[in-house]
Amino acid sequence: MSTLAPTTPLAEAAPPAAGRRRRIDDWRPEDPDFWRTKGAPIARRNLWVSIFAEHVGFSVWSLWSVTVLFLGPEYGIDPAGKFLLTAVPAALGAALRLPYTLAVARFGGRTWTIVSALLLLVPAVPMTVLLEPGVSYSTLMVLACLTGVGGGNFASSMANINLFYPSRLKGRALGLNAGGGNLGVPAVQLVGLAVLATAGAAYPRLVPAVYLPLIVLAALAAARWLDDLPGARNEPGALREAARDPHTWVMSLLYVGTFGSFIGFGFAFGQVLQLQFAERFPTPVDAVWLTFLGPLIGSLVRPVGGHLADRLGGARVTFWNFVAMAAGASLVLHAARERSFGLYLLGFLSLFVFSGIGNGSTYKMIPAIFRARATADVAACRREAGTAQRWAVRMTGSLIGVAGAVGACGGVLVNVAFRQSFLTRGSADAAYVAFVAAYAVCFGVTWLVYLRPGAHRPAGV
Q1: Residue by residue, what is the 3-state secondary structure of 192-250?
Q2: Separation of alpha carbons 103 and 100, rounded Å
Q3: Which of 127, 155, 395, 448 is the most exposed place for a label (fewest CB within 10 A)?
Q4: What is the rounded end-to-end Cα distance, in angstroms, of the chain?
Q5: Counting runs of H as helices and runs of E as strands, what totals does the chain give?
C-alpha cells in the first residue's frame, strides 16, 4: 500500500480556461514568493470549498444520531438496537478512511471530492424514501451502514488540503478544515430539531431530504472551484514503513481517545439523555435541543487544540487533556448515580470540549514527530536535507491516514460500550467506568512515550 507524497514543480501554472478541468502543474507552497503571489489565494479557495463538502459529509455520516430519536414504539426497536444503528455508520466510516486518503493522489483532490460528494446520495436518497413505520430492522441497518460513506470524506479532504499549504500554515488550515467538517454533526442535529418542532416525529425522512440539494451543491462547488494537484502520488511501501513505526500506533491510540470520543458521543448523546433522564426528556424534541450543544462546542474548540499545541507542545497539551477527559467522565458517572442532571450535563459537555481540543493537539503532534526526526537525521548526517523533508512528509501522510481510520473506530467502541452497559446493567455506569479507564491509559501512554524524563522522544513534540 502507499500514501501521499508532495508535489513537484513541472511547469508554470496558468489560469484554467473556462469550462476546462482545473489542473495545477506547478505548486511550490514553501516558496515565499510563489505563495504570496499565487499560492495563497488558490489554497484559500480550495480550503473553503473543501470545508463545505466535508461539512455535508459529516452531516450525512451523523444522520442516525438524530434519526434514532424519531424511531418511536411503532418501529419496535429497543435501546440496544438503536445503539447498533449508531455504531455501524462509525464502523464503515472508519474502514473507508484509508482508501479515501489514497484516492486523492489516485484521482486528484477535485475529482475525488466530486465523486465522494455524489456518493452521499447513496444513503440519503433511500433514507428519504424508506423511513417510515413498518420498515424492517435489517433495512434500517443497511441504511445506517451506508451513511458511513460520509466518514471517509474527512480523510480525503484532510489529505487534499494538506498538499496545498506550507508547513508553517498546515496546523491552522487543517484545524479549520477539520473543525468546519466536525460542525456537520451539530448541524444535522439542528436540522432534526427543526423537523421535530415543525413536522413532528412522524416524518424522519425529511431530515435526509434536507441534505439532497446540499449534496448536489457540494459536488457542483467542487467541480467549479477546486483544483487537482497531479504531482501528488501514492508511493509504494509508505504505509508499510509507517506501520513498522511505533509512533503510528501510539498516535492512533491517542486519536481513538480524542476523535473516537467526539464522534461516538456525538452519535450517542441524544439516546443516552433520553435513557438516563427519561422523566426530563419524555419526547425526542426535548432531547434534541440539548443534543447538538456538545458536538457544536467540540467542533468549535478543535482549532484551539492546535493553537495550544503550537505554543505549549502537542504532547503536553494532549497529556493534560486526557487527564481532564478522565475527570469529566468521572463527573458524569457521579452525576448519573446521584441523578444530578446539572452535573451530568456539565460533565458531558466537558467531554466534548476536551475531545475537541485533543483532536487538534494530537493532529498537530503527527507532523511535529517526523519533522523533528528529519531535523535530527540531517544534523547527524544520516539524510540530506531534501530527502529528510520528503521522508517526513511521506510519513506524516501515512500516519494521518492510519490514525484517522483507527481513531474513527472509537466511535464504534463508544456506542458498543453504551449498548452493553444498558443491556447488562440497565444504566450507562459501566460505560463511564470504561471511559475513565481508557483515558487513564491514554494519558499514561502520552507521558511514558513523550513526556517521561529520559524518554527517547522526538524533540519539540
Answers
A1: HHHHHHHCCCCCCCHHHHHHHHHHHHHHHHHHHHCCECCCCEEEECHHHHHHCCHHHHH
A2: 5
A3: 448
A4: 27
A5: 20, 2
Q: For residue 164, what is its C-alpha cell?
A: 496545498
The pLDDT value given to residue 18: 43
Instruction: Pick the closest to residue 188 from 328, 111, 86, 273 (CA basis).
Output: 86
Cα separation, 145 vs 390, whole angstroms = 37
Helices 121-130 and 206-225 meet at what angle, rounded to 10? 160
Task: Evaluate whether residue 458 is within a structural domain.
Answer: no
pLDDT interval class at 7 (50, 70, 90)? very low
9 pLDDT more than 60: no
196 Cβ contact partners less than 8 Å away, ≥ 6 residues apart: 69, 70, 284, 285, 288
Q: How far apart are CA 315 and CA 264, in angstroms?
A: 23
For 153-211, the pLDDT digits (tens) are 988 898 888 889 887 787 778 878 888 888 999 999 899 888 988 888 889 999 999 99
Q: Is residue 136 part of a domain?
A: yes
List, for residues 406-427, the tens digit of each pLDDT value: 988 998 999 999 999 998 988 8
Asked if residue 27 lies in contact with residue 231, where contact means CB atoms within 8 angstroms, the answer is: yes
Domain limits at 141? Answer: 2-451
- Residue 460: what pLDDT? 60
DSSP 452: S
Residue 339 φ/ψ region, left for φ over 0, alpha for ψ in the -120 to 50 degree band, beta for the rest:
left
Look up residue 441 and give its three cell numbers.
491509559
Torsion (CA) 31, 37, 40, 44 in degrees, nearest 10:
-160
How far apart are the C-alpha atoms of 44 and 22, rounded to whole Å? 15
Residue 294 near residue 268 (C-beta atoms within 8 A): no
Residue 366 in any domain: the answer is yes
Total structural domains in the chain? 1
Whether 457 maps to a domain, the answer reads no
Closest listed residue to residue 285, CA positions, set 193, 400, 415, 155:
193
What's the rounded Cα separation, in Å, for the pair 398 and 3? 6
